[in-house]
Automatic annotation (TrEMBL):
It catalyses: phosphoethanolamine + S-adenosyl-L-methionine = N-methylethanolamine phosphate + S-adenosyl-L-homocysteine + H(+). It comes from Herbiconiux aconitum. One of its GO terms (molecular function) is methyltransferase activity. Pathway: Phospholipid metabolism; Lipid metabolism. GO terms for biological process: methylation. Residues 53-142 form the Methyltransferase domain. Keywords: Methyltransferase, Transferase. This is Methyltransferase domain-containing protein.
Length: 256
């Protein structure tokens, strides 16, 4: 059977990812977060067995499966990539997870106790539209739990070298928390995960470089060059302080 592009990528990068993370820390995430960081953020957001979670930009769903297995919460994932959602569904067989395909905003209909958004805030140029959609999907007291790529917007020179730069929109932390407050989301916890994520991206870069020929045979030279270049840039930007990575929880206030 022909695999989808997303399944091809997952398969081709799997061994390098397993080797890059410390034991137990790779759970199918497509990011620099460790399993421990996913669980810490979920705990900070108060996820338990009674929580209705919406995982926005769930990708192939690794962090979501970890959260469902750990806390027994009710879980829905949404992603714009139909192939990612198909793979997420397949990988979650036997778990009480539902998925939909959709480009956010808008969010899927309904209200939730927690909206998760892991490692993808940077893809949204209009953070206010994103934040407003998240706030509207939360009941009062509900929580938005996300990771943030914090820093000034890319310069033209930085955009020129970053693969898929049209999906890379960092924002200063204070500007982001103000945007959240403007739509009725009050930030209640901020954790600086830069040091841990720097270790992960450094290890991923080393493993992708070691597996380069095999990855290129499966996915092509151009994809592989972009993969390595983007990881080099993230490593350099995190080690220099150009970008910091935060895990953040904001609570929906009764009135905006
Ligand atoms: C880096 S992956 C992160 C996946 C997952 N959250 C994780 O941590 O493993 C980013 C995902 O966001 C999805 N995405 C990006 N922009 C989106 C949008 N506007 N609406 C829905 N999905 C989006 C992409 O298709 C991709 O699957």
């Amino acid at each position: 059977m022909k695999m989808s592009r997303r399944a091809d990528i997952d398969a081709a990068l799997h061994d390098a990812r397993v080797a890059a993370y410390l034991p137990g820390q790779f759970v199918g995430q497509e990011s620099f977060m460790t399993a421990d960081a996913v669980l810490a953020l979920a705990r900070n957001a108060g996820i338990d067995a009674d929580t209705r979670v919406l995982d926005v930009c769930c990708g192939i769903g690794g962090p979501g499966r970890l959260v469902v297995r750990t806390f027994g919460c009710t879980y829905s994932g949404v992603d714009a990539d139909a192939e990612a959602v198909a793979l997420a569904r397949e990988l979650a067989t036997g778990l009480p997870c539902t998925y939909s395909v959709g480009s956010v905003p808008p969010l899927p209909a309904g209200t939730f106790d927690v909206v998760l958004l892991l490692e993808t805030v940077l893809a949204f140029h209009d953070k206010r539209a994103l934040a407003a959609a998240v706030a509207a999907a939360l009941d009062p007291g509900g929580r938005f739990a996300c990771t943030l790529e914090a820093g000034m917007p890319l310069t033209p020179a930085e955009s020129a070298v970053m693969p898929a730069a049209e999906t890379v929109w960092p924002v200063p932390l204070a500007e982001f928390t103000k945007t959240l407050a403007d739509v009725g989301l009050s930030t209640v916890s901020i954790q600086d995960d830069t040091a841990t994520q720097l270790q992960v991206v450094t290890a991923l870069l080393a493993q992708f470089t070691a597996h380069r020929d095999r990855i290129a045979a499966a996915l092509g030279t151009s994809f592989t060059d972009g993969l390595l270049e983007s990881h080099r840039l993230w490593r350099d930007w995190m080690s220099s302080g150009r970008i910091r990575k935060f895990a953040l929880v904001a609570r929906r206030m009764t009135k905006p």
